[in-house]
Amino acid sequence: MEKVFGGYKYSQDGNLMTMKDLVKTMASNQEAFELIKKAQSNNTLASIIGFAGGGLIGWPIGTAAGGGDANWALAGIGAGLVAIAIPISSRVNKNAKSAVELYNASLNTTSYNSFKPKFKIIGNRTGIGLCMNF
Questions:
Q1: Of 56, 69, 82, 119, whose CB neighbour count within 10 A is largest?
Q2: pLDDT for position 87
């Protein structure tokens, strides 16, 4: 889990995970599964409301840019929809983060953090060597 602008980016073993992947992965942990399903539902809702709001904002701007008579009431309604989508999206991030933390805490640490050393050959002015990271 990595914090990025507007939320979090989720990965497992270096592979980026979508919301759908998170839901499938957490099916074995009921409490985490319920949180991630809630996040998924809210994510869909926030996306629909945000998309509609963005379209209602963009339509009058495009009309005005094209020299037409823009209906700015649509832009105001769109701004309201975007304002509604922001806290819903924030709740999505909160629920998804909680679900991931809960799921990760439930994993058996010995099987999850298996020993995976990485070897590199390194060199400098005095010679070459083998580097092991773990």
A1: 56
A2: 94
